[in-house]
Design brief:
single chain, about 575 residues, alpha+beta, nine-stranded mixed β-sheet, four-stranded antiparallel β-sheet, 17 helices, 19 strands, about 40% helix
Length: about 575
């Protein structure tokens, strides 16, 4: 066994009940919290095996200090570079009746290992699954919320009973019988990314019985910086590693010949992990055609995966198929259309236009978008491209017109320029730059108030309405101006009765001579209120307001539907 070993095997030589394997690599800022959370677990006797993979930031020195103080802690050097080898080294040295894994920068809640071990002792199952959370500086969330198998207690089940266990294939939120682990010869591969999905899929399929406990047994830290696995996930090498491992999983699932597992795996590829990995890679690209190896690998995975059996949200299936066909620019435009707020990297206008142009070409040469794709793509194009006031006016205008032919008029619903309201391109650009109008806030209720500012008062705020293709600017009932440093702040009021129902309206300013430009920015929006006459959203740099029906008829309709459900109609 390579490397130096620090610490004793277990206090008093007693065989441990549980072995915890922790691979580490340059995690000095976080490893103290990790070790504290593991060593505080109420499982006795406990063995903690930390396998360091060539850390250079003081991690190894700190581990040696802790091992000198606590006989339950063993510190090893990995047999070979990589997280997979580190886990294998630890598992090979484990003596516990049960085996768990933990990463060197994460947290284990109190009582977590006791819940897993007690379940396995009572049931005799091979694997116990627990719930988990993820967190970063700004928020915490529960990824298992959409996985039916989690959040409940079940003993002695099989993977066929709970196929959605496949949706989570990390190794750290579960405990294994060590004799099962060794009997099945489970090993982690040394690959740049996703080194646990293949061994976990193998383990799930091999297990005779499995348990699930409702307890949160793991808290995963998503941390920034080039050194974390999360931050490297978008690189071509990481994506290719994932695709290779996922293709191996596809073969394992296909060999089982279980229709339920195949349906879950299909959803895993087309709507979950497969899409997420590919889209993350595409969204990180800021220029060029991408790596052709990616297209080949995606095509290989899709060939091994069952076709989607249900409704995959647009444009996810489109993103994967375009990537497999080598249409990287078109796939990148579709990925931006499906991205959550803040996920896509900023790109130059010309680069984004080429991507959208490639997508429109694919549609024109083929069968065109589905109705759902058209709906999603039109709104994101309208926000990401149509609402801009570009200097390259002719190129931009041609792209918007092409979008309207392919996606319909909604592709220009936030673009006054595309509707002839700002036909003089040079004057429009001059107005946008001279006035520099911005939206800052929205207040609702029974009167809509739009707040913003400009460099001059020679413009009038309004709401742009063009969803149906016929554009107009709705003027406010009143506007109040006040000086705000070098800028002029305004507050424009729109009574409910003056606004159309269920139409997306975006703030604009006009100069009184036919020139209209969008208000830049995303406003501070009011929280949802059931009796508010409006709904609001703001992303991709565009703020949108929609008037909705009065709360009384909406409440009456919900009550009627509830009665019909109770009566079985």
């Amino acid at each position: 066994m390579a490397g130096t070993e620090r610490g004793d095997r277990a206090a008093g030589g007693t065989s441990p009940l549980l072995s915890v394997v922790i691979p580490t690599h340059n995690v000095r800022p976080w490893v103290r919290q990790t070790l504290d959370s593991v060593l505080e677990q109420d499982v006795d006797p406990l063995e903690v095996i930390v396998v360091d993979d060539r850390s250079s930031d003081g991690t190894r020195e700190y581990l040696d200090e802790r091992a000198a103080e606590d006989p339950r802690l063993v510190v090893l050097s990995s047999d070979a570079p990589g997280g997979g080898s580190a886990r294998n080294t630890g598992a090979d040295r484990a003596r516990g009746r049960f085996l768990v894994f933990c990463d060197g920068d994460d947290l284990v809640p109190r009582g977590a290992y006791r819940a897993l071990v007690d379940g396995l002792i009572a049931s005799g199952s091979d694997i116990a699954f627990g719930d988990f959370l993820k967190f970063r500086a700004a928020d915490t969330w529960r990824p298992t919320a959409a996985m039916a198998a989690y959040g409940r207690r079940r003993s002695g089940a099989t993977l066929a009973d709970d196929p959605t266990l496949l949706y989570s294939r990390a190794c750290w939120n579960k405990a294994f019988r060590r004799d099962f682990w060794e009997r099945e010869g489970i090993r982690f591969p040394d690959v740049p990314r996703s080194n646990d999905i293949r061994p976990m899929t193998s383990a799930y399929l091999a297990a005779g019985r499995v348990d699930t406990v409702p307890d949160v047994v793991y808290v995963y830290r998503e941390r920034p910086g080039s050194g974390s696995m999360t931050s490297r996930a978008a690189s071509p090498e990481s994506l290719l590693s994932y695709l290779e491992q996922e293709s191996a999983c596809a073969r394992l699932v296909a060999a089982r010949r279980d229709a339920g597992l195949e349906r879950v795996f299909s959803n895993l590829v087309w709507d979950r992990d497969g899409y997420v990995h590919v889209a993350k890679h595409l969204l990180a690209l800021t220029e060029g055609e991408g790596d052709p190896r990616v297209s080949t690998a995606v095509a290989g995975l899709l060939a091994l995966s069952p076709a989607p059996t249900g409704s995959v949200p647009a444009p996810r299936e489109l993103v994967l198929r375009l990537t497999a066909e080598g249409e990287i620019r078109a796939a990148r435009a579709a990925a931006r259309a499906g991205a959550a707020r803040g996920e896509a990297a900023e790109v130059e206008d010309a680069e984004a236009w080429r991507d959208w142009d490639a997508l429109f070409r694919v549609f024109e040469e083929g069968d065109g978008p589905t109705d759902e794709e058209r709906l999603v793509l039109a709104e994101r194009f309208a926000r990401q491209v149509g609402a801009r006031v570009p200097r390259q006016a002719e190129e931009w205008r041609r792209l918007v017109e092409r979008a309207r032919r392919v996606l319909g008029d909604r592709a220009a619903m936030f673009s006054p320029s595309a509707h002839g309201l700002s036909a003089d391109d040079a004057r429009r650009v001059d107005l946008a730059e001279r006035v520099d109008a911005k939206v800052s806030g929205i207040a609702g209720g029974q009167v809509l108030v739009v707040e913003g500012s400009a460099l001059a008062r020679d413009v009038s705020p309004g709401l742009f309405d063009a969803e149906t293709g016929e554009a107009r600017v709705i003027p406010p009932a009143s506007v109040a101006w006040r000086a705000d440093g070098e800028r002029q702040a305004f507050s424009a009021a729109f009574p409910v009765a003056s606004l159309p129902l269920h139409r997306p309206l975006s703030p604009v300013v006009s100069d009184g001579a036919g020139l209209v430009v969008p208000l830049a920015g995303e406003a501070s929006l009011p929280p949802y209120a059931a009796r508010d006459a409006f709904l609001y959203d703001g992303y991709d740099g565009v703020t949108v307001v929609r008037r909705r029906r009065h709360w009384i008829p909406r409440g009456a309709r919900r009550a009627l539907l509830a009665v019909r459900v109770r009566l079985g109609r």
